[in-house]
Amino acid sequence: MKLKPIPVDVVLAESTVLLSEKDSTQMGVKEGDRVVITGNKTVVAVASYGVGVVEDGSIKIPSSLLEKVGTYRDGTVNVQYSHKPDSVHFIRKKMDGERLSKEQINAIVEDILENRLSGIEISAWLTALYINGMDIDEIADFTMAMANTGSIVTFSRKPVFDFHSLGGVPGNKITPIVISIVAAGGLMIPKTSSRAISSACGTSDFVETFCDVELDANQLKTIAEDIGGVFSWGGSMNLAPVDDLVIKIEHPLGINPRAQMLASIMSKKVAMGSTHLLVDIPTGQGTKVPTLESAKSYARDLMDLGDRIGMHVECAITYADQPIGNAVGPNLEARECISILEGSKHPSSVVEKAVECAGILFEMAGIPNGAVKAKEILDSGAAYKKFMEIVVAQNGRPDLKSEDLKPGKYSFDVLASHAGYVHSIGNKQIVMVAKAAGAPSDKGAGLMIYKKKGQRVEQGDVLMTIYAESESKLQRAKESALANRPFDIEGMLLKRVTEVKPI
Amino acid sequence: MKLKPIPVDVVLAESTVLLSEKDSTQMGVKEGDRVVITGNKTVVAVASYGVGVVEDGSIKIPSSLLEKVGTYRDGTVNVQYSHKPDSVHFIRKKMDGERLSKEQINAIVEDILENRLSGIEISAWLTALYINGMDIDEIADFTMAMANTGSIVTFSRKPVFDFHSLGGVPGNKITPIVISIVAAGGLMIPKTSSRAISSACGTSDFVETFCDVELDANQLKTIAEDIGGVFSWGGSMNLAPVDDLVIKIEHPLGINPRAQMLASIMSKKVAMGSTHLLVDIPTGQGTKVPTLESAKSYARDLMDLGDRIGMHVECAITYADQPIGNAVGPNLEARECISILEGSKHPSSVVEKAVECAGILFEMAGIPNGAVKAKEILDSGAAYKKFMEIVVAQNGRPDLKSEDLKPGKYSFDVLASHAGYVHSIGNKQIVMVAKAAGAPSDKGAGLMIYKKKGQRVEQGDVLMTIYAESESKLQRAKESALANRPFDIEGMLLKRVTEVKPI
Question: Which fold does the domain A161-227+268-402 belong to in CATH?
Answer without folding.
Answer: Pyrimidine Nucleoside Phosphorylase; Chain A, domain 2 (3.40.1030)
